[in-house]
Amino acid sequence: MNRAPPRALIRMSATAVSAALLAVAASCGARADDSASLLKAMTEYTAAQKSITATFDSDVEIITPDLQKIQFTSSGQLRMARPDKLRIRRTGGYADVDLAYDGKTVSLYGNNAKAYVQADAPGTIDQLVDTIQAKTNAALPGIDLLLSNSFDVLTSDVIEGYHIGQGVVDGVECEHLAFRGRDTDWQIWIQAGAQPIPRKYVITSKTVAGAPQYTLRIKDWKTEAIADADAFAFKPPEGATKVGLDSDVMVEFDEVPAGTTSGAKK
User: Which residues are in coiled coils (predicted)?
Assistant: First the structure.
């Protein structure tokens, strides 16, 4: 027969939980001062790398009108050569997209739509990202980790930050940092040691009911020079059609189905 727990036990449990919460809060407060220095070390490390290749998995959440949370998953590859070469391929259940930038022209190909868009964009990767975000309002979550001024961009809206402690991502020991902003909160797991590589990045939207998140997990990080001369050259596949940014087929380039609303943005 089930019996109600003694009142004394309930009080003791509540006290233990309260003590644990206070201990966590005190621990976070003690580590608050070094969250910025750990983040700064990561951004300086990534900015100093002339070449970066990596693979990634990403999850984006949306909230339906009846408040159901749905998650969409994709994977991809990144190749970057500073200051002006970038290639990102992302494949998911609803998108198969290839972005190529050779320092002069940016090309975006959607394999599902068998269509591509192109634009002249002479300059650097940083300038390209600024242009894309200004003209298309695209969030491009995760790209801010690789900009030359990444620290300034990441902390531009930060109200407070904490060094939560240690964590393990894909078997790698990491420093776990958490930051609060006005519209979004975000967390990052940075590989511990001499190579402070970003391993996991989570953005939580606070302005959307249900607080949807965007999660990025980075793997296979390498900094060797990219030997492939055509790594950043875009050649339209046979049968592909060139379209404008205002074309209806652009919906096929998104990683969530048409008619849904993206969740976390930063």
Answer: none
Rounded distance between C-alpha atoms, residue 74 and residue 185, angstroms: 22
Residue 261 belongs to some domain of the structure = no
How far are the Cα atoms of 10, 12, 18, 184 from residue 7, in angstroms, in the given order?
Answer: 5, 9, 17, 41
The tally of CA atoms less than 13 A away on the side-chain side of residue 67 is 4
Provide the token pair at 215: 């999660």
Q: What's the rounded mean pLDDT across residues 227-240?
A: 93
Residue 260 lies in a domain: no
Interatomic CA distance for residues 133 and 123, integer angstroms? 15
Cβ partners under 8 Å of residue 62, min gap 6: 69, 70, 72, 212, 256, 260, 261, 262, 263
Which of the four pLDDT bands, split at 50, 70 and 90, describes residue 254? low
Counting the structural domains of the chain, the total is 1
Residue 266 lies in a domain: no
The 3 state secondary structure assigned to 156-218 is CCEEEEEEEEEEEECCEEEEEEEEEECCEEEEEEEECCCCCCEEEEEEEECCCCCCCEEEEEE
Q: What DSSP designation does 120 have?
A: E
Structural domain boundaries enclosing 167: 8-253
Query: DSSP states of 31-55 as a string?
Result: HHHHHHHHHHHHHHHHHH-SEEEEE
What's the CATH number where 28 sits?
Answer: 2.50.20.10
Torsion angles phi and psi, residue 43, rounded to 5: -65, -35
- Residue 258 placed within a domain: no
pLDDT of 264 strictly over 70 = no
Of the CA atoms within 13 Å of residue 139, those in its CB half-sphere come to 15
- Tokens (6 digits) for 235: 């050649």
